[in-house]
Amino acid sequence: MTSSEEPKLPRLSRREIQAMFSLDELKQTRYFQDVREEGKLEGKLEGKLESVPRLLALGLTVEQIAQTLDLTVEKVREIPETH
Question: Which domain of life is it from (predicted)?
């Protein structure tokens, strides 16, 4: 979901959404699918970022880590400062 898109369901509470949809119906909504995919991507990125300090400790170069984890060199360089 891009920042320019107006989300339709987030203004409702979780309880209100559950009252409107059964779990199966909710899983079929585009909003649910988008949020789920976004969560998966964030989780994958978080896992990669958590690996960077350990890979640096093993002696890998920033470039090797970036290539291995499919990250930019700039992103890898940011990690030791933030973790």
Answer: Bacteria
Q: 54, 24 in Cβ contact below 8 A?
A: no
Is residue 34 a part of any domain in this protein?
Answer: yes
Average of per-residue pLDDT across 67-72: 96
Q: Which amino acid is at 43?
A: G
Asked whether the whole model's pTM tops 0.85, one would answer: no
Question: What's the angle, vertex CA 32, arms to CA 30 and CA 33, rounded to 5?
Answer: 65
Q: Cα separation of 64 and 60, whole Å?
A: 6
Number of structural domains found in the chain: 1
Distance of alpha carbon 58 from alpha carbon 53, whole angstroms: 9
